[in-house]
C-alpha cells in the first residue's frame, strides 16, 4: 500500500444549491398582476420538481436563508449535470428570477468515501448505499450548508497520510456522526473539480441547535480539528408552497 493511496469514492446524484436574494424594492414596485404572474410561474416550476421527486428521478428542497448572504436556497439533486443546467436555465427564464439575484451557488455530486466498506461487496447493490447516493432530501425544519476542504499544509497534509491513518480518523468521525442519527441528516457533496472547495456539506435537522452541537463536537475530533478548513455557513428554515407565498407577500 503506497503512503498516499488515493481513495475510491462512490458517486450518486449531482447536486446544485441555488442561493438567491430577493430584490424587495423591485418586488414591491411590481404590480399585483406582475407579482401574481411571477408566483404562478414559480409554483408551476415547483410542481415539476415535486413530480420529479415522486418519480424518484431526483430530489429538491426549498428553504429560506437567514442573515444577509441569501434569502432563499433551492437545492437540487439530479442524475446528470445536463438536468441541473436545464433547471438553472428554466429558473432564470421565469419572471420571478428577475426579482432575485444569485449571490452564491454550489455544484457537487453526492459522495460516499470508501473508508468504511464491506470488502468483496458491490456497494451499489446494497440498498442502504443506494439510499445514501440517491437520497430523497428530508423536508426537516432547518438546513445548514457550508463548503470545506481538508488541509494540504506541509505539516498537516491530509492527502499525504497513509490510508490507515485516514481510515482511523474517519472511523472516529463516523462514530461522532452516529450519535446524531435521527437528529441530523448529512448529504456530503464531493466537489473536487466542480466547485471552489473540496466538499459541500448539507445538514438537515428539526432542532437548529443540533447543527451547533454536531459541528462543535466535530471540531474537537482530529480530522476536523487538524485538517478541516471551512467556508461560509448558511442556515435556513424549510418552505412549502404556502410559507413561500406568505414570505413573498408585500
Ligand atoms: C450527521 C452525522 C454524520 C455521520 C454519521 C457521518 C459519517 C461519515 C462517514 C462514515 C464518512 C466516511 C464514509 C462516507 O460515508 O463517506 C463520512 C465522510 C465525510 N464526512 Fe461525515 N458524517 C456526519 C456529519 C458530517 C459533518 C457535520 C461534516 C462536516 C465536518 C465538520 O467538522 O464540520 C462531515 C464531513 C464529512 C466529509 C467531508 C466526508 C468525506 C471525507 C473524505 O475524506 O472522503 N460529516 N462521514
Report on this model:
With 250 residues, the protein is α+β, with helices and mostly antiparallel strands. It has eight helices and nine strands. It is 36% helix and 29% strand. The protein has an eight-stranded antiparallel barrel, surrounded by four helices. It has a single domain, classed as Alpha-Beta Plaits. The mean pLDDT is 96. The site of harderoheme (III) has 23 residues, from strand 4, strand 5, helix 5, strand 6 and strand 7.
Alpha carbon gap, first and last residue: 63 Å
**Mean pLDDT over the full residue set:** 96
What is the radius of gyration?
19 Å
Secondary-structure class: alpha+beta
Shape: globular
Order of helices and strands: EHHEEHEHEHEEHHEEH
Q: What are the distinct ligands in this entry?
A: harderoheme (III)
What is the number of E strands? 9
CATH architecture group name? 2-Layer Sandwich
CATH class: Alpha Beta
Amino acid at each position: 500500500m503506497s503512503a498516499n493511496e488515493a481513495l475510491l469514492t462512490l458517486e450518486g446524484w449531482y447536486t446544485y444549491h441555488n442561493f438567491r436574494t430577493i430584490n424587495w424594492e423591485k418586488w414591491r414596485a411590481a404590480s399585483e398582476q406582475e407579482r401574481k404572474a411571477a408566483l404562478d410561474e414559480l409554483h408551476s416550476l415547483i410542481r415539476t420538481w415535486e413530480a420529479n421527486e415522486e418519480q424518484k428521478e431526483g430530489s429538491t428542497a426549498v428553504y429560506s436563508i437567514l442573515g444577509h448572504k441569501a434569502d432563499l436556497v433551492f437545492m437540487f439533486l439530479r442524475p446528470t449535470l445536463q438536468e441541473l443546467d436545464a433547471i438553472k436555465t428554466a429558473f432564470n427564464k421565469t419572471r420571478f428570477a428577475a426579482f432575485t439575484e444569485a449571490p452564491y451557488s454550489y455544484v457537487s455530486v453526492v459522495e460516499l468515501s470508501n473508508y468504511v466498506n464491506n470488502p468483496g461487496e458491490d456497494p451499489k447493490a446494497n440498498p442502504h448505499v443506494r439510499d445514501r447516493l440517491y437520497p430523497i432530501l428530508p423536508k426537516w425544519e432547518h438546513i445548514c450548508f457550508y463548503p470545506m476542504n481538508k488541509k494540504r499544509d506541509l505539516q498537516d497534509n491530509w492527502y499525504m497520510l497513509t490510508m490507515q491513518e485516514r481510515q482511523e480518523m474517519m472511523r472516529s468521525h463516523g462514530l461522532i456522526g452516529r450519535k446524531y442519527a435521527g437528529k441530523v441528516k448529512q448529504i456530503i457533496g464531493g466537489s473536487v473539480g466542480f466547485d471552489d472547495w473540496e466538499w459541500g456539506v448539507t445538514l438537515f435537522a428539526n432542532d437548529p441547535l443540533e447543527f451547533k452541537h454536531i459541528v462543535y463536537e466535530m471540531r474537537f475530533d482530529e480530522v476536523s480539528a487538524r485538517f478541516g478548513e471551512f467556508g461560509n455557513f448558511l442556515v435556513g428554515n424549510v418552505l412549502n408552497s404556502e410559507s413561500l407565498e406568505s414570505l413573498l407577500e408585500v
